[in-house]
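Margin note from the TA: students keep mixing up input and output lines. Inputs are the sequences; the output is the structure of the whole complex. Example:
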Amino acid sequence: MSAVTQDDLVRFVYREARLLDEMEFDQWLALFTEDGHYWMPGEWRQTDPRLQASLMYEDMLLLRIRVERLSNARTFSQKPRSRCQHVLQVPQVDEMDEAANRYRTYTPFHYVETRGDEKEWYAGWARHELAVVDGALKIRLKRVDLVNFDAPFGNIQLFM
Amino acid sequence: MTRYRGNPQAIRDLIRPTEVHRDVYIDPEVFQLEMEHLFANTWVYVGHASQIPNPGDYVTTEIGRQPVLMSRHSDGTIHVLYNRCPHKGVKVASEACGNTGKFFRCPYHAWSFKTDGSLLAIPLKKGYEGTHLQEKEAVKGLAPVGGVHVYRDFVFARLNPVGQSFEEFFGDALSSIDNMVDRSPEGKLVLEGAPSRYMHPCNWKMLVENQTDTCHPMVAHESSAGTAVSVWEREAAKGGRKPMAVEVYAPFMAPYEFFEKMGIRVWPNGHGHTGVTTSIHADYSAVPGYMDQMVAAYGEERAKRILGENRHNTVYFPNIMVKGPIQTLRLFKPIAADKTLVESYTFRLVGAPDMLFERTLMYNRLINAPTSIVGHDDLEMYERAQLGLHSDGLEWVNVERLYEDGEEPDATAVINGTSERQMRNQFQAWAKFMTMSMDDATAPAKSGAAA
């Protein structure tokens, strides 16, 4: 692809959220690099996903397990199924380093996850670290920090 | 209407040898009596000494629904105190943990207390000259709980000042804590990493029972662990080592025969553990360098014995579960008959390689967190049980699996791993500690004014 523009990054972040809202999880997984990670820290300003406690720190294998599970006939916690909606602020571009092939964005968001008659609200900040792979932007790391990461949640079953 | 208060026989009647009445899970009055009796008469886990290493350090928590704080005094001793100013009742410490310095100071009227709870000072004290304050309980400071016992840095408390001693209550069950601590080459654990907190709209005992329920994993966790296994089987064709995450997930799909063979041990007073001969933790890959450290610390024979113990879940009645081979502790905090806060804590083995702690943290987020798909499977079942038990179709819950006539309560025994014996053990203990101090209440009323 030609040089990545700020507009490309913003559109990418919006499209990613829309795929989740539309439950197009296979297309969503395809947005990640093969060594990509999805990270939800469990500590304030967490720096280490391995030796500090996280809510999620998942590679592609673990993300595929999650996605495959969602449609399994015996996934009882998805009967009825969950749905979700993202409301994003305009993503801010924190870094555009073409030489290093590293692009970083910062996107405050509100997120609703529903199941049956229950509805849960979450708020936080999404940080995307993107790279151009085979001519397309891909996610190396999606980091989701919740405002209340330390609260006792019920089941969080989809992706923020 | 009170059906159970002051009626210990009605409480005992809720527990049959092989069945449990649904009121044990859904009745608010039974829950209230649990808070007053069960959680007062038993030794309840409060916290770990490594959370409060320095004088002035404190942690706030609850025993049942009683707000308490655990503090480190200037002489190094640990105190468990009711978190309630003796003046107006304000909670003196509000944060989960911190360091209060040399004294606690109530934020309302600045009454202050030493870190052992004793009253330090009251502002404008002359306003009490000529009053009877000196005769009041308020001048004693923050009230201590009935008893505190620190066992290898695990802090337990009993609200009731009288009752079974710590040793009598736990007995040989403490061997699971011993094994977890001994897994450190230095014989020391530190609690590290934020606890996973997970809210469950169900009764706390469902969670405790599930710790020794070995007939559900291959059914309830087919969706999570089962999917993990099948996705990995596809990925494995590409080559490479089995990832740590798959080692954590896959054993949850072990067949019934595996769980039958691994055995369950029960101890008196409601304690017990799964995984006597082997367990879902037995086949983790060796961590480079760890065995050498253990041999250097303990000698080869003892090191092998320590690491050869692969106990699965040890329930310390009433409300914690300890997992030695993965260094976690889960605390099931009752909030209401149908609401429970689950806190899962992770320990670092002092002196051991980082990779062990990495595995502990991974286990905790893959199995115990609100974002854990294994957790989603379990919570779904608890929620459905909490709702289903309101059905008038049947009032009794069955815990009869592998029951044997004449089964002795309060005995140590090792049985088939798919037995519901440990659940029966817990309910026998439940009835015992629920009614232990109720009988006094039904004794003929003492003459004169209440004390």
